[in-house]
UniProtKB/TrEMBL annotation:
Stated family: Belongs to the F420H(2)-dependent quinone reductase family.
Protein name: Nitroreductase family deazaflavin-dependent oxidoreductase
InterPro entries in alphabetical order: F420H2_quin_Rdtase, Split_barrel_FMN-bd
Catalytic reactions of this protein: oxidized coenzyme F420-(gamma-L-Glu)(n) + a quinol + H(+) = reduced coenzyme F420-(gamma-L-Glu)(n) + a quinone
Pfam family, one: F420H2_quin_red
Segments passing through the bilayer: none
Domain of life: Bacteria
Gene3D superfamilies: Electron Transport, Fmn-binding Protein, Chain A
């Protein structure tokens, strides 16, 4: 992703992202006690990189994020973007890496949902607010070639 990401969120989310990036991940990694990452997707219409901050969990080496949109009836824009283009860039603390993201399959979703509601219990309330099933997204690091 060669262009500088466009930070589409506003208000406190935009301030969170700014603090995270300007500090190299030293500030902003924890949000109300929950770990957060920055994910950069490619806009499905604009083709521009779009960055947002999300609470994450872990499943082994994989990162997990929830497309809750605060319990709104529609999916968040970042999910639509990664469904169209699953190659993403991720920042966790100071570390930045390329990854591939995909929604969890139904057979793995229940276990991962428990992991994520354990990380951020508000997700359960968000699910009660909407009739859509809130997706869990699995992010897997892309192996970088050995330069040697």
């Amino acid at each position: 992703m060669s262009q500088e990401p466009v930070d589409s969120p506003t208000g406190w989310v935009a301030r969170h992202i700014k603090s995270y990036t300007e500090s190299g991940g030293k500030r902003g990694h924890l949000f109300h006690g929950a770990p957060t990452l920055l994910i950069t997707t490619i806009g499905r219409r604009s083709g521009l990189p779009r960055r947002t901050a999300l609470i994450y969990g872990r499943d082994g080496d994989r990162y997990l994020v929830v497309a809750s949109n605060g319990g709104a009836d529609g999916h968040p824009l970042w999910l639509h973007n990664l469904l169209a283009q699953p190659q993403v860039s991720v920042q966790v603390g100071a570390e930045v890496f390329d990854a591939v993201a995909r929604p969890a399959a139904e057979d793995e979703r229940l276990r991962l949902w428990e992991t994520m509601t354990g990380t951020w219990p508000h997700y359960a309330a968000y699910q009660r607010k909407t009739s859509r099933q809130i997706p869990i997204v699995i992010i897997e690091r892309v192996a970088t070639p050995d330069p040697g």
